[in-house]
Every structure is written in C-alpha cells, then in structure tokens.
Design a protein that fits this description.
heterodimer, A: alpha/beta, Rossmann fold, 2 domains, 4-stranded parallel beta sheet, 14 helices, B: 15 helices, 76% helix
C-alpha cells in the first residue's frame, strides 16, 4: 500500500503542466486587438469565466476577475490572475468598475445579477461544463461575447488535438472520488468524464449514482477501489476533511491521489488533469 | 439497586449490539458479528472493526461521561438543573478543542486536543462552582451558565469563521450539537484515558455527596472537606466532559435527563445515583445515536438535536417545579 501511495504522490509532483499547456499560451500571443465595437471593459465574477476570459481577452479588454481566480487551490491560472484587479462578486464594486460586459456563472448570486441588470449593465451567464465535449462550446461562447472568435478557434483546435491523443482502454482500474464530508461525485460530472477518458472505470457508474452526493464511509470501504481521488487539504483543520484520512480508508489497498484546480472548470486546463491521470493509470497497471 | 444496575448493564450491552448492526451497508447479523472478530471478507471486517465498533464504543464512553458528570454536579450543588451542557461546560470544552485544532496545536501534538478541551471545561466548572457557591442557588447557576455558554459559543463561532479552512464555518453546528458520524479508533484512544481518569475521580466522591445531602455543617462534622471535594469534582467533570466534547462535540441534556429519570429508583442517594447515571447515560447516547441513523440515514443528524427535543421539555418542567426556590 505504501508503494501505491508513493506512486500516486510521485506522479502528481513529476508531471508538470507547462509542457502540455504551452501551445495554448502560444496561441494566446497571436491574439490580436479587439474589434472596434467589442466590449472593452469586461468584468468576470466567476472562477470558470475568469479563466476563459483570461485565455481569450485582448490586452486591456478584461479589467477584473474574481478573488478566487488567484487562489492556486482553485485556479490553474492563479499566476495570470494576480495581474488583474479582483472583485468579490458584489454588485456595488462591479458597478463602480463601469463594465460594458459582466461574465457570470449560471449559479452566480441571482440578486447581484438582477441588480446589475437593473442598473443597465450587460450580464452574460455561462453554463456549467459536465463533459469534456462541452469545453469547446464554452470557449466559443465566451470568444463570441468578447469578439475574439479567432483566438477561440485556435484554442479549441489545440484542445481537440490534445484530447484526441488520449485513447482510453476498454477496462481500466476502478476509481472513486471521495471528498470532504464523504461527498462523492456522480456520473453526470466533468470529473467523471475526465476520469473515464483517462481510462479508469468510475465506481459511481457501478452504483448507478448519476448525481453527486454523500456516500457513506462504509459503502466507500466496501467499494474497494483501485484508486481514490481526494480533494487537496486546506490549511488549518476541519472535521469535514478528516474523513479522507479515516483509518478504514487508509487500510484499503487503493492508490491515492487528489484532484487540483485543473479539474474544476471546463477549460483547456483539463488536459493537464487528464495527462496526469493517464500517467497514473499506466503506473497502476504496470505494478 | 443491584437489580437496577444489572438491568442497565444488560440494556447497554443490547443497545451496543444493535448499534453495531446498524449501517448503510446492511450486512446480516451473523455476517456482521463474525466480521467483527475478524472472520469475514477484508472490507466487511474493516467496516465492522474500524467504523462501527469505534462509533458504538464512543457512544458508551460519552454517555458514561455525561451521565456521571450530570449526577455529580447535581449532587454537589444539590440542584437538579445542573448539567454540563446547560451550564456551559460542554461549550467551553468545545471552544478549547476548536482552538487546539485551528491553531495547529492538535496537529503537532495529538494530546493537545483533549487537553485543550479539558482546560476549557475545567475553567467553566471552576467558575460556575465559585459563582454558585456550595449551596448552588438555581438563579445564579443558570444565569452564570447562560453567560458562559453564550460567550464560549460566540468565541467558537468566531474562531471557526476566521479559519482559513472553508469547511470550518459549517462545522459550528457539529461543535454545538455533537455527532458520532465517521469517528475512528484514533478518537477512542485519544479520549479514553482522560475519561477513565474523570470517572475514577467522580466515583470516589459518592460518600461525600451522600453526606452533603444532610447539609454542609453535617457533612463537615462527618469529616468531608468541601474545598477538596470541589477540586476533585472539577477535575473529574472537566476530564470526562472535556474528552467527550473533544471527539464528538457538545451533546447537551444527557446529564440532565438521566439522573432525573433514575433518581426515584435509587432512593435519591447520590452515591447510588452515580453508577446508575453512568450506565443510564450510555443507554441514552446509544439510543440517540441509533435513532439518528435510523431516522435520517444519510444526513448526519446531530445528536444534540435529538437530545434537546427530549431534554428541553424536561428542563422546562424542572424549572416549573423549582421556580419557587428561584424567587
């Protein structure tokens, strides 16, 4: 079991993201100036639209991103986000930035959004991503809103090439997500798609769990996974996170890894998550 | 009296077994019991030994601690309203535990968690006994208890709100209501030594508590040293309630309900009420923990919710009965 642990950790450390995402940054440099009538003061108030906007916007077109965009635990583009002024999703501060376009998520605070709209601000809500093939749609949508269609097409083309290079086998190791408070992801999620595309079988499918939700610790132990995917720990302690290090789970012969910021949003960063998982699967199958 | 203790022991054993048999995995009785002793599939054995067994053990240990502490406090203060949860001892213990966890002290040194909870509980009991005095005036006791509970609760919420951990805030309810969900043997071993020390300390005071029913002067003439007794009870209650709260949060009303129900059966003798309340506490917490799992299997309903539903009406009834003396 100890070796399985080490393998998991090793891979997380050794496979960097830089190589995989490099073509996207190259594409970014080619992004030209915005069209004359394109929105020029864009504010994003959602972690996922933050990333898409940073990928697509012309210089100076995006004037603020949300505060969590610069949290490396949540955002794979934390470094780039540090260059932007942050907002905290409050109607007042966003209005004072006098934006001509606000990008929000479908679950962003409806009170804030309706208030901004009442004040005459254009707010566009971008949908969730529940599968890898929805990533290009979102990139296209944000690209169209920012009037950066060409940049969007370049990023999409690169994403699809990267994705096509990962060919899943028919039967891989069995894996399950187990997050704080015993929260396990269902099959209708982006993470499920990342997992299965990387060639793992998701135990949620065996259990017929389409929706995410609490999975009793007992049932997790009985599921006997080959790989457990936890969340990264936050600083200071919490009882919610304690379940991931419960002695009953640690006694299982499963390999352990954790999902990071690359998993959260439907952006090209998912390719990095996929590549790491594929490496991990090859290690598990080799051992 | 013997019969009562035997009956309660039997009830604890029965409920302990029921507690082991309840869980979302739904094994058969034979399968569960053989897995408990290591004869079964690896996964089932893990579930029985590492998940269900510590939970049932903790229910018994916490029940004993709370029942015993309630009976001891009520005996010493000669006041049926004294109870660790109501007078702020449990919430002070929770504050100590939260401080140890959030400062990282508990991560660096595992015993810091029960020790900090014990200190919190100890300070609260000491303050209460000093304020309420040996006679334990109901009004002073309850008012001081309200103030200590409110302060400890607010400070717990403050510490958890300031935590860099986003899950901490949602755990305020755990620290104030208590739960045994997903505890492990780590928690059993962490709490057991302190609890056993606390139980031993409280049990030595049976004779003194009996003497105290005759009044302080009579107790003094029987050779009971009130000051010494107070210190031993403070240490005993702090150790047992502190350790219980450190691993399962503050569970209220157990120490109120149990001595109240059992008092008529033991002839109102505190020394007899102590062991009976310990066993009664174990029965009540086991029952509550079984009930929350049967009623809402996948929601982790907090034990304190159930205990308050049972205990608060009784508390009101007791206040009604003692209101004359409260002036």
């Amino acid at each position: 079991m100890a070796t399985a642990h080490q393998i998991g950790r090793c891979i997380l450390v050794s496979v960097g993201r830089s190589k995989l995402i490099a073509p996207i940054w190259a594409a970014l440099i080619m992004v030209g100036a915005a069209h004359a009538d394109a929105p020029m003061r864009v504010v994003s108030m959602n972690l996922c639209t933050d990333q898409l906007a940073m990928l697509l916007a012309a210089p100076n077109q995006l004037i603020s991103v949300s505060d969590i965009a610069s949290d490396p635990r949540m955002s794979p583009m934390a470094e780039q986000a540090a260059d932007y002024p942050v907002n905290h999703g409050q109607a007042e501060e966003i209005f004072l930035l006098s934006p001509d376009l606000v990008l929000a998520g479908v679950y962003s605070d409806p009170v804030v959004i309706s208030m901004l709209r009442r004040l005459g601000v254009r707010v566009e809500q971008i949908g969730l991503v529940n599968a890898l093939d929805q990533v290009p749609t979102r990139i296209e949508e944000v690209g169209a809103l920012l009037e950066q269609e060409a940049a969007a097409q370049t990023i999409i083309a690169q994403y699809e090439t990267d994705l096509a290079n990962i060919i899943p086998p028919q039967t891989g190791p069995r894996a399950e997500f187990y997050y704080p408070n015993g929260y396990a992801l269902g099959t209708g999620t982006l993470s499920n798609d990342i997992l299965t595309t990387a060639g793992f079988r998701h135990i949620a499918a065996e259990m017929g769990r389409g929706n995410s939700g609490r999975l009793a610790l007992e049932l997790m132990v009985l599921a006997d996974p080959d790989l457990m995917i936890h969340a990264e720990l936050y600083p200071a302690a919490s009882r919610s996170e304690e379940i991931m290090t419960h002695p009953a789970l640690k006694a299982l012969p499963a390999a352990v890894t954790s999902s990071n910021s690359d998993w959260i949003c439907g952006t090209p960063a998912v390719i990095a998550a996929l590549s790491r998982l594929v490496e991990l699967r090859l290690e598990l199958e080799g051992s | 009296m013997r019969g009562l203790l035997a009956f309660l022991t039997l009830l604890v054993a029965l409920l302990f077994a029921v507690s082991l048999l309840i869980g979302p995995a739904g094994f058969g009785i034979g399968e569960s019991l053989s897995a408990l002793f290591g004869n079964g599939g690896e996964a089932i054995t893990l579930v029985m030994q590492e998940i269900r067994l510590p939970r049932a053990l903790l229910a018994v240990m916490i029940g004993i601690s709370l029942g015993l502490s309630g009976a001891a406090l009520q005996g010493f203060l000669r006041n049926p309203l004294a109870e660790p949860g109501l007078i702020g001892v449990s919430s002070s213990a929770a504050l100590g535990a939260v401080l140890a966890l959030q400062t990282g002290l508990a991560a660096a040194f595992a015993l810091a968690l029960p020790l900090a909870a014990l200190s919190g509980a100890g300070l609260a009991v000491l303050l209460l006994l000093l304020l309420a005095g040996p006679r334990g005036g109901s009004l002073t006791l309850i008012l001081a208890g309200i103030a200590i509970s409110a302060l400890a609760g607010a400070l717990t919420a403050l510490v958890l709100n300031l935590s860099p951990n986003p899950f901490a805030v949602s755990e305020i309810v755990f620290w104030m209501m208590g739960s045994l969900a997903d505890r492990s043997f780590t928690h059993v071993w962490l709490a057991l030594p302190f609890m056993m020390l606390g139980w031993a300390l409280i049990m030595t005071q049976g004779r003194g508590l009996d003497a105290l029913t005759l009044g302080e002067d009579a107790a003094g003439s029987l050779g009971i040293k009130l000051g010494q007794m107070r210190l031993i009870l403070v240490a005993g209650v702090a150790a047992s309630v502190g350790a219980a709260t450190a691993v399962a949060g503050a569970i209220g009303f157990v120490g109120l309900v149990v001595p109240h129900i059992l008092r008529p059966f033991v002839g109102a003798r505190p020394s007899a009420l102590l062991p009976a309340s310990a066993l009664g506490g174990a029965v009540l917490v086991l029952l509550a923990d079984i009930a929350v799992r049967v009623a809402v299997p996948d929601r982790d309903l907090k034990l304190g919710v159930l205990m308050a539903i049972v205990g608060a009406p009784l508390f009101l009834h007791l206040i009604y009965k003692t209101r004359r003396s409260m002036g």
